[in-house]
Amino acid sequence: MYAVYPFGRNYVNDNLTNEKIVGMESGYGFHSSKFTTNLNLYRTTWKDRFQTVGDRTVVAGTLENPNGYFLYEGLSKTHQGVELDFNFKPINKLMVNGMLSYGNWFYNGNATSTRYTLSNQLFGAGANVLYLDKVKVGNAAQSTAAIGATYELVKRVKIDANYLYATNLYADFIQHI
């Protein structure tokens, strides 16, 4: 959440390391009166990321560390993939559209997790190693496809239908370690 002051508290993170982000994207687009399409390739890497997450650990039905938090440090991950979208107007009143997206998002190497109390005191034994190398990044479908159509019944009255398929959706487990 907050790098310098974890969780917005009056405590400075002395171990702060600047994140390193490198992103590249390349694409091609084609446009004509009846058909348009775009193709994009992307790759983004993050190194030395941090993340703070509220501690929701429950023991015997009670929050073990109320208002505490986990500080994850040294997270590195890669997002890479290809995306294609198109619009096709075969006749004046009909528009067909679609998209495909294939991604491969994963963590690189290991990170650490340290648990703190509301008053920013260490809770527990100290930092734990998170073995994340090649684990998939969660909370968003890494591959999707969609197709749809819009038809104009009469001037300014349209109907449409769309279908979306999503796969390679992984749990956002890092918030619950």
Key phrases:
177 residues; mainly beta; 8-stranded antiparallel β-sheet; two-stranded antiparallel ribbon; 10 strands; 0% helix; 59% strand
Shape: elongated
Largest sheet: 8 strands, antiparallel
In angstroms, what is the radius of gyration? 23 Å
If helices are DSSP runs of H or I spanning 4 or more residues, what is the number of helices?
A: 0
Report the span from N to C terminus: 17 Å
Number of strands: 10
What average pLDDT do the residues reach? 90
Q: How is this structure best summarized?
A:
By secondary structure, the protein is mainly beta. It has no helices and ten strands. Strands 1, 2, 5, 6, 7, 8, 9 and 10 form an eight-stranded antiparallel β-sheet that branches. A two-stranded antiparallel ribbon has the order 3-4.
